[in-house]
Design a protein that fits this description.
The complex is a heterodimer of chains A (320) and B (337). Chain A is built from 14 helices and two strands, in the order H-H-H-H-H-H-H-E-E-H-H-H-H-H-H-H. With 320 residues, chain A is mostly helical. In chain A, strands 1-2 form a two-stranded antiparallel sheet. In chain A, a hairpin with a 2-residue loop joins strand 1 and strand 2. Chain A starts with a helix and ends with a helix. The relative contact order of chain A is 0.19. Helices cover 73% and strands 1% of the residues of chain B. A two-stranded antiparallel ribbon of chain B has the order 1-2. In chain B, helix 3 packs parallel to helix 8, helix 4 packs parallel to helix 6 and helix 4 crosses helix 11. In chain B, 49% of the residues are buried. The chains are: A mainly alpha (320), B mainly alpha (337). At the A-B interface, helix 6, helix 12 and helix 14 of A face helix 6, helix 12 and helix 14 of B.
Chain lengths: 320, 337
């Protein structure tokens, strides 16, 4: 029995899955409003942007890097997309493609600067985050773009039963990313470089290319998150992304990613986002201060890394 | 006076003059860049060196420098502290609560604020040392935790009925000198004493330079790290309380934009992220550069909107320059032997 429990405990996101299930059932038992179609729709809608921001961070964590510019780049993409729609009247697909390109280019800049200079990604992305935010506020003077095409705004609120159309993007992204990391050569390279960059290089993996790739994909995912956020809000706010920093780290880490790299979990990250959304929703239903979210988020991060330590110590002991 | 500290200082007689220039090129470079900006801003807009503008600039500098010191002392150990803004605002709100709701005297309330900051920093340090989790993650978590706890307890209320001495103190003006600037200079002087003349300071640097070697030579690195984080917490709350005096009220929004400035000043000043080396004078000058650019853009009416872009680019340039400088120094050293 003990061994079964401990083998269950060593699973990456098993505890998280149990917690999410318990949370889901207790919320449905406590609050009749919880299971209503509309409430489920609201939860799924807030799930979308957060998951993409978290996956953007997860990609840089995979190679052992940190990306402080996820939110800043997202904000820049949001106002570029909104600006192209309102000021220039470009068709939606053009704006979306330009937005994605801006996100990917931002990622390329982060990656190249990190690789070429050998300076810690923390400082590089702290600087580029400031630069992206500066361009964002310099261009908009913090005035949002409101006049967006009706079709685009409608997409942000459309739903089938409880499922928002918005959910398509994060669902597809998560599946593709899980496949990429598990089944493709480049995906394995990412994790190999994160696990042991020196060993990866010695076995012929182009380390620098892989790091740039991770940053580029990270930028691309922040761009998708930003475009969804614009559709969801119905306006391109310059402040989009400004509150992604902590949550983008919290979800992958609660989901079992290590800061040193080489180990990430798409399923774990998604479950962590579900947990965060459940907590937010539960607090709203219980009419508790929204401030508890911030507090609980911090507590969850510390609990997750604490549990991870405990698990590591346990595995070590059982293997001895 | 140029004061630099490394874990393995060279004796003055070992330093050749050309080496001196290279070793201190960071500080000299900063001084010349700042001088260029001052001349340019004054030339374009003479209002830049008006007594009032200088006063505002130097008062903001005082606060920014203490924020920078708060990060510098943990960078010295090779760690970091992302919770500086949260600790600052917790102290500010605590002091505000004591003064407005409990009618505690300002001196006592401010001291209690600094004490709270040190305690929160102590908790950070303890969590890092006991769990072995990286300082980045622990302080990311506690940043959110402290901020959330503060918001829950205060319900995000603003304390704006504080004793008048608080805002009067913040407005004191001797020419272009503010007492807030003098406080930061005093803190800087104490840090110079700590890192240069005390064994504790040397132990902090040794721990940052090579924690394993430090441990083997008998330094209790756990205690050293906890001390550095407590000091960082106390400095963060001091910065917050200085801002409280300047604003005259305790608002929960204080500290939310400290992340960038907290790293800007020390990193521009040449403090290494890897640990083992700090520069108090460099941090002061780094802060002065930031304050100069901020004030200059305001005087030129370019406004605050582009400021972030300038700061980001300057941070990038600074780390790039530092990178090539260290490569150059390394080559010279290898070539000379």
């Amino acid at each position: 029995m003990m061994s079964r429990v401990s083998s269950f405990l060593t699973r990456d996101w098993s505890i998280l899955a149990v917690i999410v299930l318990v949370g889901f059932f207790s919320l449905s038992a406590i609050s009749p409003a919880f299971l209503t179609e509309y409430n489920q729709y609201v939860m799924l809608r807030s799930f979308c942007v957060v998951l993409l921001a978290a996956l953007a961070q997860m990609l840089t964590l995979a190679v052992g890097q940190i990306n402080l510019s996820v939110g800043a780049l997202g904000g820049l993409v949001a106002i570029v997309v909104g600006g192209l729609m309102e000021k220039f009247g470009f068709p939606v697909w053009t704006c979306v493609i330009v937005g994605l390109l801006v996100g990917a280019s931002g990622g390329v800049i982060n990656g190249l600067l990190t690789v070429k200079t050998g300076i810690d990604g923390f400082i590089i992305t702290l600087a580029t985050a400031s630069a992206f935010t500066g361009i964002n506020y310099g261009l908009t003077e913090s005035i949002p773009f409101y006049k967006l095409p009706q079709g685009f705004v409608d997409f942000g609120t459309a739903r089938v039963f409880a499922f928002p159309y918005l959910l398509i993007a994060p669902a597809l992204t998560a599946i593709l990313l899980a496949w990429f990391l598990a089944r493709t050569v480049q995906g394995r390279w990412l994790l190999a470089v994160g696990g042991n960059s020196h060993a990866a290089e010695l076995s012929g993996i182009p380390r620098n290319v892989v790091v740039v790739l991770a940053h580029t994909l990270s930028g691309l995912l922040s761009a998708i998150a930003a475009i969804l956020a614009v559709a969801q809000l119905g306006s391109a706010q310059p402040s989009i992304g400004s509150n992604w920093l902590i949550i983008s780290f919290a979800a992958p880490i609660i989901g079992g990613a290590t800061l040193t790299g080489g180990h990430v979990s798409v399923a774990g990250t998604a479950l962590a986002v579900v947990l965060i959304v459940l907590i937010q929703n539960g607090l709203v239903l219980a009419q508790v201060d929204p401030y508890y979210v911030e507090f609980l988020l911090g507590a969850l991060i510390l609990l997750a890394v604490g549990a991870d330590r405990l698990r590591a110590a346990q595995t070590e002991r059982s293997s001895v | 006076m140029l004061v630099h500290f490394t874990a393995t200082p060279r004796r003055p007689d070992q330093v050749r003059s050309s080496d001196f220039l290279i070793e201190h090129s960071n500080v000299l470079g900063l001084v010349s860049i700042i001088a260029i900006f001052w001349i340019a801003f004054t030339y374009i807009s003479p209002g830049f060196i008006s007594s009032f503008n200088l006063f505002t600039l130097l008062r903001n500098l005082g606060i920014d420098v203490v924020i920078g010191f708060s990060t510098m002392v943990v960078l010295a150990t090779g760690g970091m502290n992302l919770a500086i803004g949260s600790i600052g605002v917790c102290s500010v709100m605590f002091s505000g609560y004591l003064m407005q709701t409990l009618n505690v005297s300002p001196a006592l309330a401010l001291s209690a604020g600094v004490f709270l900051g040190a305690a929160l920093g102590f908790a950070n340090g303890l969590a890092i040392v006991r769990t072995g989790v990286s300082a980045f993650i622990v302080t990311l978590g506690t940043a959110s935790l402290y901020m959330g706890a503060m918001l829950i307890l205060t319900k995000a209320a603003v304390y704006d009925q504080l004793p008048v001495v608080i805002s009067e103190f913040g407005r004191i003006r001797w020419g272009f000198i503010s007492p807030l600037l003098l406080i930061s200079l005093a803190v800087g002087a104490s840090l110079i004493v700590l890192f240069r003349f005390s064994s504790l300071g040397r132990e902090i640097l040794a721990t940052g330079a090579n924690s394993r070697a430090a441990e083997l030579s008998g330094i209790r690195i756990g205690n050293v790290i906890v001390f550095a984080h407590s000091l960082s917490g106390a400095l963060a709350s001091l910065a917050g309380l200085m801002l409280l005096c300047r604003l005259g009220s305790a608002a929960p929004s204080i500290g939310q934009d400290w992340l960038l400035p907290s790293f800007l000043a020390p990193v521009l000043g040449g403090t290494l992220l890897a640990g083992g080396y700090v520069s108090v004078v460099g941090t002061l000058l780094g802060g002065l550069l930031v304050a100069t650019i901020r004030s200059g853009l305001l005087v030129l009416q370019i406004g605050n909107f582009w400021l972030q872009l300038f700061l980001g680019v300057i941070l990038l340039l600074a780390v790039l320059l530092e990178r090539y400088r260290s490569i150059y120094t390394e080559r010279r050293r290898v070539g000379g032997q």
